[in-house]
Every structure is written in structure tokens, then in C-alpha cells.
Specification:
This protein is mostly helical. Helix content is 75%, strand content 0%. The protein has helices at residues 4-27, 35-43, 55-90, 102-116, 127-146, 153-177, 182-189, 198-217, 219-226, 229-234, 239-261, 267-279, 283-307, 316-336.
Length: 339
């Protein structure tokens, strides 16, 4: 049994790592800013009044880098927690936030929006994130309906896989007949935060944080579900209803993350496993720590993506895939070994 003191130490350590990653990410870029100046600028928004701080540095941090950092953190939190919840619901270490066709739905929504040339806006959000969120939610609803309301795991899983293939085929068909949009669509599906701004942070943060807090508060129910349906029912838990609620909340979180970042794979796969090794399988600690772990991983990956070949930027989804694919193979090999 892992002690409370150990868990507190891990939590504080993750916080320190995240804050350090924020400072490093704020410092690195085409215009280098010292770590000390980054801290001063963040602590004192009116940095021009601080001796030795240039107004240009303040502008770079507050208008360019900090919105991107915050959006990366909140997206990583959402993907990390969703991964932990999906793995718990399906009792499958290979489960991830996109298993219900969420990513395919978002990608199809974006493809359709680009092809149709939509110019709508909502609270400062352009058609791209709106189309992504709408496509992800509609695809998830269809999967729920086709599988009979998500009451049984296997039909739900198979419906999600089938929906993903179907939407991917439709997306490929649209791209084939609209090759002028091909580059934009492919770039979005690789994931990127280069269009981050404070409006996206303000709109996305309440949705993801509210969902994460809900999942943390009801993490005990998820522990009971992992024990098996019979055990959970004997302890008074309505498994089917709880599973549906967890799926809906996780889907909304993932759809919100995908809407502002594009398709970023493996975060929901890597983070819960890494945290589980450190803290154990108890979702009361696994979920909040997966929030921090997801934020750290995605922030580090995005910092690498925008600085490794600066001033050129590569999609962050490529970096997470390079990290996640070997981990996936390691996990698969570990599952094949006899216990």
C-alpha cells in the first residue's frame, strides 16, 4: 500500500517539474529570454516597470508563448485523464481517448469544414475548432447509439473501431476530390498549437477542468468498476449508468482538447501507465496525477516541436508519436509474456 506521504511527495514533485517546464518553454524560442526574466514577466504582468526587462520580451511571453503554454497544459491534462479513465472503463491497457472514434470524428469535421469553406465563429473560435468539436461529439453519439447505449463494453469497442474506419474513409474521399485543402487537413491531423491564443484558453479551460474535477470526485466508482461488474454491483454501484457517465464526460474532455490542438496521439496511452507504475492503480491518485503527467509530457513535446529545428516548427503529434510508438511496442511485448 502506497503511503499518503509518498503520494504527497510525488504530487509536489510533479508540480515542481511542471513549473520548471513552463519556465523553460517560456525561455526557448527564436528570441531567447533568460529564465529569470521569464519568471519576472509571469509574476509581474507589467514587466516594463521592472528594471532590465524589455517591452518586447513581455510581449513575446504574454501574447505568444504563455497562451500556447497554457493551452498545451490544459490539453495535456485532458488527454492524460481521459486515457486513465478509458483504460479503467475497458480494463484494457491499450485503451486510449480516441477509441470511440473521437479523433476520426474530429478529423472528419475539420475536413468537411475546410472543404465547405466555413467561416463561422463562436466566442472568437473559428470554424476549425468548432467543426472538430462537433464532429467528435456526433461521432461519439453515433457510437453510443449503435452499441446500444454503451451498456456492454465489447459492442461499444467494436462500434468505435468501425466508426473510426468509416470516417477515415470518408475523410480520404473528401481529400481526394479537394486536393487544394490537402496540406491544411494533413497538418491539422498531425496536431499543433501554433494557433494558440488566450480566447482558446479561456473557452477550453473550464470545460476540461470541470470534467477532470468530476472524474476525480467519482474516482472511487471507477475503482469499483475495475474490480469487475459483479463486485461493483454487490457494493451498490450501477455499473452501466456509471460507465455511460464516465464515457460521456471523458468524450467531452477529449473532444475539447482535440478541437484546439488537432489529433495528438499516445498522450492518453503513455501517461496513465507511467503514473500507475509510480503511484499504483488507485484512481483516486491516478487521475489527478495523470492530469499533471499529461500536462508535463505535452508541454515538453510541444517545446521540442517548436525549437528543435527552429525557426521551422514540426507538428507536436509527430513528437508524441515518436515517444509513444516504442512505448506501445514495449507494452504489447510485456502483455505477451507469460506471468
Amino acid at each position: 500500500m502506497i503511503s499518503v506521504r509518498y503520494n504527497n511527495f510525488i504530487f509536489i514533485l510533479l508540480i515542481i517539474i511542471l513549473l520548471t517546464a513552463v519556465v523553460i518553454a517560456g525561455s526557448l524560442g527564436s528570441a531567447r529570454i533568460s529564465f529569470t526574466d521569464v519568471v519576472k514577466i509571469i509574476i509581474h504582468p507589467i514587466a516594463s516597470q521592472i528594471e532590465g526587462i524589455k517591452e518586447t520580451s513581455r510581449t513575446i511571453i504574454w501574447k505568444i508563448r504563455l497562451p500556447r503554454i497554457m493551452l498545451t497544459i490544459i490539453t495535456g491534462m485532458g488527454l492524460g485523464v481521459s486515457g486513465a479513465v478509458f483504460q479503467g472503463i475497458f480494463r484494457n491497457p491499450m485503451a486510449n481517448p480516441y477509441i470511440l472514434g473521437i479523433s476520426s470524428g474530429a478529423a472528419f469535421g475539420v475536413t468537411l469544414g475546410m472543404v465547405m469553406g466555413l467561416q463561422i465563429t463562436f466566442l472568437g473560435m473559428t470554424a476549425i475548432p468548432i467543426s472538430a468539436f462537433t464532429g467528435a461529439i456526433i461521432a461519439s453519439i453515433l457510437v453510443f447509439l449503435i452499441s446500444g447505449g454503451g451498456r456492454d463494453i465489447l459492442p461499444l469497442l467494436l462500434s468505435g473501431i468501425a466508426m473510426g474506419f468509416f470516417l477515415s474513409a470518408l475523410m480520404s474521399l473528401l481529400m481526394y476530390f479537394n486536393r487544394s485543402q490537402l496540406e491544411n487537413i494533413i497538418y491539422w491531423t498531425m496536431g499543433s498549437f501554433n494557433a494558440a491564443n488566450w480566447k482558446k484558453v479561456v473557452i477550453t479551460t473550464p470545460v476540461i477542468l470541470t470534467g477532470n474535477v468530476f472524474l476525480i470526485l467519482f474516482s472511487r466508482d471507477l475503482n469499483l468498476m475495475v474490480m469487475g461488474e459483479d463486485s461493483a454491483k454487490s457494493l451498490g454501484l450501477s455499473v452501466k449508468r456509471s460507465r455511460l457517465i464516465f464515457l460521456i464526460v471523458s468524450t467531452i474532455i477529449t473532444a475539447s482538447a482535440v478541437a484546439v490542438s488537432g489529433v495528438i496521439g499516445f498522450v492518453g496511452l503513455i501517461v496513465p501507465h507511467a503514473i500507475r507504475i509510480i503511484t499504483g492503480p488507485d484512481h483516486r491518485s491516478l487521475i489527478p496525477y495523470s492530469m499533471l503527467g499529461g500536462a508535463i509530457l505535452l508541454l515538453v513535446a510541444d517545446t521540442i516541436a517548436r525549437t528543435i529545428i527552429a525557426p521551422t516548427e514540426i507538428p507536436v503529434g509527430i513528437v508524441t508519436s515518436l515517444l509513444g510508438a516504442p512505448f506501445f511496442l514495449f507494452l504489447l511485448n510485456r502483455m505477451r509474456q507469460p506471468k
